[in-house]
Amino acid sequence: MYAARALLRSRLAPPSTVAKPCKSPTSACYQVFVRHTSTSTQDGSQSKTPALDDLLGAEQVGKAKTLSREVGRLSRELDAVYSRQRGLNRVLKGPLTVRRVARAREWGGRVSVRDGRVFVENKALSGEAEREIPKIWLRDNCQCGGCVHETTRQRLLDTFSIPSDISIKSHSLNTNNVLSIEWSDGHTSEFTSQFLTSTVKPDHDKAIIRQGLKNVSLFDASIASSPPRHTYTDERPTAIHTILSKIRQHGFCYIDNTPHSTPTETETLLRRISFIRETHYGAFYDFTADLASQDTAYTNIALEAHTDTTYFSDPAGLQAFHLLSHTEGSGGASLLVDGFKVAADLQVADPQAYHVLATVNVHAHASGNDGISIQPYRGFPVLEHDPATGALLRVRWNTADRAGVEMPIETVGTWYEAARKFDALLKEKRNEYWEQLTPGRVLIFDNWRVLHGRSAFTGKRRICGGYVNRDDWISRFKMGEFGREGVLGALAEG
Ligand SMILES: [Fe+2]
Ligand SMILES: [Zn+2]
């Protein structure tokens, strides 16, 4: 689109912007350039640029101005067309939405080979009886021990040694629905029909394993009566998966009965999930309110609901808090708000505002520490969706750390209006879940979904906790949920 616009602009650009020297100018064209831009005096110095009217005549200048206005108008029309195109693409892919159900449909389509071409039927797709699987893909995804390392599942095959005109010399389909292919390069491959039919899975179904999806239970203030929890004393190998599974479903989980005389057990718990993420604040932390890290989180003032580390391109995945002690004072209740639930509320209340928060990029920064200003490599929307499925993936909301809103300045009011509506919903009493944390109860929540805050407090609070990367915890969850074979079996799905 930019090429078309540039062409349009170059066609319609007024003469004053066209007159520039050639790369290897002759004296004639150089003189033309000089005449357009400056006037030499007798002593060789240059006077100020004369008015365009004097150089081109009022009529030409009038034409240039008209054309310039026309360029502006057409450019705005192009913007509108591209915006409609993006909207149309979105409709074709499926609407932006908060997805709650992760349920795959049945496959079992028929695999057939005709005229040296492989076709897959998929009963789950209406109106799309068959699709052809390109031979290059099949050969590249041969699953034999010579093409894929049996332990690491890394590709051993040199993809680009496959002839581009690779063809099927012979094939057979046995009764177990395994397709055996002898290729023109002499290699033999075997594919199960399950593997072949997975190539035509809709993106929504592929996303279940790819993103580790689980049915989502949105929460509001009423979750106070039975919040998701587990016990630290569960030492079974499945304990961590049970915790992660609850977080995947509800957005958070308490781990009760955690020893609290020192932070050691809390750190052990986090390390049982995965690596603790290091940031400019350190890795596992243990602090009292002393403003040592130059961030409002380290004071005793109230904090509105927010997500952490919006200033990273990849914000922290999980966050853990454990109040080890609170002496000589009171207050400091913890606030949790389900960002997905409030996004769903906004979509119902004001779809246009939802769309604005889903499409306008916002920048952020962390600059409190000496010599540090961390910013993401690009802006991200408040409500970030999976481009493949349109499902909400991540909520980023931190007013304190917000930097620029990526919109032409004259239109930025639109974002503020949408953000104000989201903010009002976040602060509705029915959406705020307040809980007074006590020593022994670790809170772990999904920082890509759940916003957190706290009320002001007095006295001394000792808190420990840390972050876990999103990829680390979701990968851990997926291995527990689908098993190694399930996860690795879906690698080729894309
Ligand atoms: Fe925070
Ligand atoms: Zn092979």
Describe it for me?
- By secondary structure, the chain is α+β, with helices and mostly antiparallel strands.
- The chain folds into two domains: 92 residues, NE0471 N-terminal domain-like (2-Layer Sandwich); 265 residues, Clavaminate synthase-like (Double-stranded beta-helix).
- The protein is built from 14 helices and 23 strands.
- The strands form seven sheets. Strands 9-10-21-13-23-11 form a six-stranded mixed beta sheet. Strands 12-22-14-20 form a four-stranded antiparallel beta sheet. It has a three-stranded antiparallel beta sheet with strand order 3-4-5.
- A hairpin with a 4-residue loop joins β6 and β7.
- α11 packs across α13 and α12 crosses α13.
- The longest helix is centred in the first third of the chain and has 36 residues.
- It is flat, with a radius of gyration of 30 Å.
- 27% of the residues are buried.
- The N terminus is likely disordered.
- Zinc ion binds next to loops.
- Its EC number is 1.14.11.8.
- One of its GO terms (molecular function) is iron ion binding.
- InterPro entries: AlphaKG_dependent_hydroxylases, GBBH-like_N, GBBH-like_N_sf, TauD-like_sf, TauD/TfdA-like, Trimethyllysine_dOase.
- One of its GO terms (cellular component) is mitochondrion.
